[in-house]
Design a protein that fits this description.
alpha/beta, 10 strands, 15 helices, two-stranded parallel sheet
Amino acid sequence: MESVRIFDTTLRDGEQTPRTSFTPDEKRDIAATLDEMGTHVIEAGFPANGDAEFEAVRDIAASTRATTCALARIVDGDVETALDTGAEMVHVFASTSDVQIEDSMHTTRDDVTARAVKAVERVADAGAIPMFSPMDATRTDPDYMAEIVEAVSEAGAEWINIPDTCGVGTPSRFADLVSHVREHTDARIDVHTHDDFGMATANAIAGVEAGADQVQVSVNGIGERAGNAAFEEVVMAVESVYGVDTGIDTERITELSDTIAEYSAVDVPVNKPVVGANAFAHESGIHAAGVIENSDTFETGVMKPEMVGARREFVLGKHTGTHAVRKHLRQSGFAPTDAEVRQITRRVKDRGAEKNRVTVSDVQRFARELGVDSSEEANA
């Protein structure tokens, strides 16, 4: 893995999250942040969806340095509308699995191939970058996959996106699919994975290991059904686990995540990798003691909170140990003895065991009730 490009689809697939909609101002704000962070491609929307969507895509295309992508079905009107936005890339897609061809598009393989070729040729003739997606690729017959990929590649497709539309891929099978597609095209390969079984990020990374150049992601993993491969997970896995520079300003990841959570009204789970409230939080006494000594003991060792604009937290509760309590006391200006630390730790544990939230204010109150010296008194 030498390099990985980031294609963000928060404004398109992310906005398809049920009960989610972004205003034009919110779209502009999100696009500006993604652009400033170094995102390679911003899929700004599906222009044929309506005037508001068209204007949003056109506005983003005119105001960002990143490549702006517009989505289009293999329908003449969709393609022309996408081109009219001024987007540098047009992402045309068509169902290629038999179940979708027959029961969604109500047509045939031959018709899909002919219309896909025509759409790609039109985008190429207009001077935009053609990307083609064989939708539901992981449930598509391999022979037909090879046939349509070869056809659109000959028509001028510069990118082939391989989408796991229904999230049924597994890392090894998805990697095999990427390898299969590579055998039938000279176009660059992009992957789009869904999280129905919690494997979106793993599948995306497997795709890159198999030769994909670019990953489609959505901030906080929002999107259809269970969502997409998450921007923050893919970027940090590539940067920290593989040691590959994505070109993304990772220190703004938490800020971006918070913005998307606010605008989408989709809360970030506390245990969400990278951006969840507990991603860098420690309560267990053994873990906290180790991290206080050396964060590499019970964190990844390759991803620090400051790398994503977050902060480490030592949580107080039932599992808290003396090291964390002593740290909180000292940060609050107290100079406790070992015995006092043990007494306060016991109070913290008891309060936490009763399912009460324990705060730093509680620790300070316990210290005052026990008459623990403050640092100033100890130094007097």
